[in-house]
Amino acid sequence: MDAFHTLATSNMKHLYYSVAQTITHHSVTGCNMNTGDMLGSGTISAKEESGYGSMIELCWGGKNTINLPNGEERKFLADGDEVNLTGICEGNGYTIGFGNCRGKIMPSIDDSNYF
Predict the structure, then answer these.
(1) Which residue in 22, 87, 95, 113 is a FRET match for 65, CA 20 to 30 A apart?
(2) Position 112 pLDDT exceeds 80
């Protein structure tokens, strides 16, 4: 496996809804909040390309090519590609985050023998 390449870096300041608004929306729609509940932000994008939040944005729906530093090109993930997501939050004298969230794209199963 080659080294990972950073495709995008964004910031929660680009969220459409604040975290407080997200929690409020979630709780008033009939879903109770409990200690330890985890909420995701969804895609965080940005105004500049370096902060686009997904490959579909980075390649404009497949119209443009993403050039990787190792010479490979992508429009979408390919079999064998590995994705590693990381995230941190920094404040006055602290940094919190989560470890690597990593997965590998596996080829689909050839089920032609079953039908």
Answers:
(1) 87
(2) no
Residue 61 and residue 68: Cα distance in Å, rounded?
A: 17
- Burial of 12-49, coded b for 16+ CB within 10 Å and e otherwise, reads eeebeeeeeebeeeeeeeeeeeeeeeeeeeeebbbeee
In this structure, what DSSP letter does residue 67 have?
A: E
Tell me, yes or no, whether 60 lies in a domain: yes
Q: How many CA atoms lie within 13 A of 65 on its CB side?
A: 7
User: Which structural domain range is residue 54 located in?
Assistant: 12-114
Is residue 77 in some structural domain?
Answer: yes
Is 1 a member of any domain? no
- pTM for the model: 0.65
pLDDT for residue 115: 64
Number of domains observed in the structure of the chain: 1
